[in-house]
Amino acid sequence: MNTSSFTILLGGHLRLTDRLRALTRGTRMIAADSGIRHARLLTAQPELWVGDFDSSDAEMHAAWPQVERRSYPAQKAVTDGEIAVAEAIRLGATRLVFAGALGGERSDHALQHYLNALGLVADGFEVVLTSGDEEAYPFTDESQLELDLPKGALFSVLGFTALEGLTIRNARYPLTNYALAFGSSRTISNVAEGPISVSLRRGRAILLARPYDHSGA
Q1: H helices present in the chain, as ranges
Q2: What's the burial of 215, exposed, middle or buried (CB within 10 Å: 0-12/13-18/19+)?
Q3: Which pLDDT tens digit goes with each residue over 8-66?
Q4: 126 and 199: one domain?
Q5: CB under 8 Å to 49, separation ≥6 — which residues?
Q6: pTM over 0.85
Q7: Among 7, 132, 144, 209, who pairs with 20 as Cys (CB 3.0-4.6 Å)?
Q8: Which domain holds residue 196?
Q9: Which 3 state secondary structure label does DSSP give 110?
């Protein structure tokens, strides 16, 4: 087990895939409220379960009586997911996998996961968000991503600011030292030609990959 690598179990959609197994293998786990249900999917036991438990039912509580719980009031200033992340960092996390971070019933929570991840990466943490079907990789100033994608897989680069010096290699639509205006859709729905490389000189962005989606091939 990698004691500094944590999976945060969140309330969104999660499908078991080989890539999800690889991302979470050997990690410690903390569940945020209803995210505990994903522990069974991953055949793992979290070491901690946190939240206000407003979306956890009696069946979930009965299934995980041995997991340490920390309860918080419903009227609080942060989300259950952010509490779980803070606990992981307190326990020594340097790498974080947000499992169940994408999609789900609450788009506001999904967007907050993106924003939280961007802030963490800017502070030096390694972060990936996943639903099993999709993976999101935040990156910021003076950074480079090397991502092993199968040929034909769809991916997009989402700019959360204007981007300067964006370079995308080994893709159907490559870019070199590109300036992407904030809000531009120029980098949506690209297609990997195999493992891709993405680098950025300035800005904040998320690469959203769909490794199993070859509809653009």
Answers
A1: 18-24, 37-41, 58-63, 80-90, 107-122
A2: exposed
A3: 999 999 999 999 999 999 999 999 988 999 999 999 999 999 987 776 677 777 778 88
A4: no
A5: 30, 31, 36, 64, 67, 68, 69, 70
A6: yes
A7: 132
A8: 139-210
A9: helix
Last residue of one domain, picked from the residues 133, 158, 179: 133
For tokens 């719980």, the residue is: 69
**Cα(134)–Cα(209) distance, rounded to whole angstroms?**
6
The pair of structure tokens assigned to 47 is: 């070491």
Token readout for 39 is 């522990």
Domain boundary among 133, 161, 186: 133
Q: Tell whether 108 and 61 lie within a shared domain.
A: yes
Which residues, 6 or more positions from 152, have their beta carbon under 8 angstroms from its beta carbon? Answer: 191, 192, 214, 216, 217
Q: Write the DSSP symbol of residue 203.
A: S
